[in-house]
Amino acid sequence: MKTILSDFPIDSFQKDLIGWFQREQRILPWRENSDPYRVWVSEIMLQQTRVDTVIPYFLNFMEKFPDVQSLAKADEEQVMKAWEGLGYYSRVRNLQFAVREVSEAYDGIVPADPGKFGELKGVGPYTKGAVMSIAYNIPEPAVDGNVMRVMSRILLIDEDIAKPKTRKLFDTAIREVISKDNPSDFNQALMELGALICTPSSPSCLLCPVREHCQAFAEGRQHELPVKSKKKKQKSMLMAAAVLRDSSGSYWIRKRPSEGLLANLWEFPNCETVSDTLTQKEELETYLIRELEAIPELTPVEGVIQHVFSHLIWNIALFAGIVENVKEGSGLVKVTEEEMKQYAFPVPHQKIFKLYLEKENK
């Protein structure tokens, strides 16, 4: 680290960065106070999700589960429903698991010890650093992609940020430059700078409060950094799904397995297919007969639902049908449209139902 930080003006960098944040920081609901539980929930929500998207979810979540005890005691179905649409559902399952441990082992008080907090389920180095610094003013680095982008430009680090060893490089660097007097504002300022000024493709260098400390700007290399190797190409899958009803108008839905993608969420019956729409209908009918012993007369619903995951793309053909009875043990549950509002569905199945209603009501 001596080479990266040699002659770097740490004190003036801290002063300029923190001063800017204290003047310009956005008013966000999780910044109303430094309650560690609120900070923790917000940081879990903000992982891989935009601030504007998170705000209404955070407010709703805090209204339903305002403290450690309420989330620890909550029914998982209610928690999943409150998270519905945020994606990456393992985040909230791990959060509730960890909160229950805090309730039992620490009397409902989020531990102020980085070691103990870091041992909780779902708490990685970034979450540990963010909560410890923001809530307890402990000088722990909070290194995510946003922060690595900012510091790669400030310190002219051209190592591949997709590699784990590079994260350790940034962790070491930030331990050196973090403000020991005000780590809360320092870490939040780095995050804010990355979100508002030092953005991925078009950094607003002329508005940057720490421009004079930025080595990439001095060399005109800000657009080259950070260095990041490309992800593998996403796999594309053809799917077929069925919105099935009975003669009373109730819907058949089922719960996904407790492990794997979208675990424990609810969905409409569906399967992977291999061919075009005509054959997809036949494949879906075969699947429904084999797996559920349901024999519907399926009608295609015009339109294809596409949903993009980080590693996968679903292209879903939609069908509708009537089924009075299904195989016992099939996992299908019959619910009214009103009752369906109590169940948490992943976004692709929310899209399925929305398209179905749009076509049905035409």
Secondary structure elements and their pairing?
Blueprint: H1 2-5, H2 10-24, H3 36-46, H4 51-64, H5 68-73, H6 76-83, H7 90-105, H8 114-118, H9 125-136, H10 145-154, H11 164-177, H12 183-196, H13 215-218, E1 235-245, E2 251-255, E3 266-267, E4 270-273, H14 277-292, E5 299-308, E6 312-322, E7 332-335, H15 347-360
Parallel strand pairs: 1-6
Antiparallel strand pairs: 1-2, 1-4, 2-3, 2-7, 5-6
Describe the structure.
- The protein is built from 15 helices and seven strands.
- The chain is of the alpha+beta class.
- The chain has two domains: 2-224, Hypothetical protein, domain 2 (Endonuclease III, domain 1), CATH 1.10.340.30; 235-360, Nucleoside Triphosphate Pyrophosphohydrolase.
- A hairpin with a 5-residue loop joins strand 1 and strand 2 (251-255).
- The longest helix has 16 residues, at 90-105.
- The chain starts with a helix and ends with a helix.
Structural descriptors:
362 residues; seven-stranded mixed sheet; 7 strands; alpha+beta; 15 helices; 2 domains; Endonuclease III, domain 1; single chain; Nucleoside Triphosphate Pyrophosphohydrolase
Number of domains: 2
Number of strands: 7
What structural class do the secondary elements suggest?
A: alpha+beta
Indicate the low-confidence ranges by residue numbers: none
The sequence of SSEs as H and E is HHHHHHHHHHHHHEEEEHEEEH
Q: In the CATH scheme, what's the topology name of the largest domain?
A: Endonuclease III, domain 1
Major sheet details? 7 strands, mixed
Please give the CATH class of the largest domain.
Mainly Alpha
* Share in β-strands: 5-15%
Envelope shape:
elongated
Corresponding CATH architecture of the largest domain = Orthogonal Bundle
> What's the pLDDT, averaged over the residues?
93
Q: What name goes with the CATH superfamily of the largest domain?
A: Hypothetical protein, domain 2
Using only C-alpha atoms, the radius of gyration works out to 24 Å
Helix content: 40-55%
Give the count of helical stretches.
Answer: 15
